From TrEMBL:
Protein name listed in UniProt: peptide-methionine (R)-S-oxide reductase
One Pfam short name: SelR
Catalytic class of the enzyme: oxidoreductase
Residues covered by the MsrB domain: 15-139
SUPFAM superfamilies given in the database record: Mss4-like
Signal peptide region: none
Organism: Streptomyces tremellae
Record's catalysed reaction(s): L-methionyl-[protein] + [thioredoxin]-disulfide + H2O = L-methionyl-(R)-S-oxide-[protein] + [thioredoxin]-dithiol
Keyword Oxidoreductase part of the UniProt annotation: yes
Length: 141
């Protein structure tokens, strides 16, 4: 996990371009670290097989075989596509200590990761991700 040190991202866009490419809701979550309301996201209960990519830059982040039903109101995954796909940053906002999950390619806010909540997953982790930060590409049949 990194501290508040800003890293150089592979995908860098001026703010005007982010605003032009993203809807207001997408911009608020991806670029301002907002959270979409629970149980409102497009992928909360989706069981479609495929790959979840960053809505901001298209980088592959998660696969459907690591998604699980956490019943928390947001899509949950127990592992990213690979360890370099996401960046973990300490988040001390709102009087809490959490771990923020960002896209490692463009720095967009995705959600948070939690450990030790008792879910029966191989990693004991729950990547709690905003649907609006993702785009699902279904697997070909």
């Amino acid at each position: 996990m990194t501290s508040g040190i800003k890293k150089a991202y592979d995908v860098v866009k001026p703010d005007e371009q982010w605003r032009a490419e993203l809807s207001d809701k997408e911009y608020a979550v991806l670029r301002e670290a907002a959270t979409e309301p629970a149980f409102t996201g497009e992928y909360t209960d989706t069981e479609t097989e495929g790959v979840y990519s960053c809505r901001g830059c298209g980088a592959e982040l998660f696969r459907s075989d690591t998604k699980f039903a956490s019943h928390c109101g947001w899509p949950s995954f127990f592992d990213p596509k690979d360890s370099d796909a996401v960046e973990l940053i300490e988040d001390r906002s709102y009087g809490m200590v959490r771990t923020e999950v960002r896209c490692a390619s463009c720095g967009s806010h995705l959600g948070h990761v939690f450990k030790g909540e008792g879910y029966p997953t191989p990693t004991d982790l729950r990547y709690c991700i905003n649907s609006v930060s993702l785009r699902l590409t279904p697997a070909r049949s």
